[in-house]
Amino acid sequence: MFKVTAPAQMNETFARAVNSRRLETVLSLFEPDAALRIGDTTLRGRHAISRELETLLALPGTMVSRNIFCIEHGDIALLRADWIITQDGQVVARGNSAEIVRRQPDGTWLYIVDHPDGAALPPVA
Q1: Is 0.85 surpassed by the pTM of this model?
Q2: How far is residue 50's CA from residue 23's CA, in Å, rounded to a whole number?
Q3: Are 36 and 42 in contact (CB under 8 A)?
């Protein structure tokens, strides 16, 4: 399992966890009742999130995720990242995420809200 001790490390750590291909490792980065937004649906809790993460882990290739900004406010931080999954030089998937993480009592950080495409949505008319 990976431990995130600074919120700006979250996106890179998430990519390392995905590349480990271990569902438990990826899930360990989420609070038990975290929310994951996929399309128009919000999944709540690790059990619901795990089904979507299994789909992500089934994709071929290697993920890279680069934190664009991290705004901390006490025990909460807002993150924005660009991520991409490639295999043999070909793009398998990509996105621009928005996330909220929270500092835990042990000093580590976990996702409370993850929106893998939240920073790439078109403007509202």
Answers
A1: yes
A2: 7
A3: yes
